[in-house]
Amino acid sequence: MHRFVDILTSNFVSTADDNNDPTIILRAVEALQALLPSDGYVVGQWSIADAIAAPFLARTIPSLKNDLHSYRESDKYARFKKYYVDLTNRESFRMTFHEDVNTVVTLSSSKL
Question: CB neighbours of 112 closer than 8 A, spacing ≥ 6?
């Protein structure tokens, strides 16, 4: 669980904050995917690691879907994509996160 959170926070935050090469995110996605069990969440059942991951991924994945063809079209990331769907299908997530609003706010904030 700690390794998952370390990869998530070090790669996703530095890429967003420093305008680094977005392919860093794809390498992080690969590393995160390798840590995921074949089904379920980070440790099988929903945990604090998933609660930490949800806001990072919810703001990053829309960019991947729109900007990185290799993520959008590849089956290479199938397990990670399933994990993301599982995260975003949770009722608590759906009630508090709205991709269109949060993505715009995140993109606007990064230009400040």
Answer: none
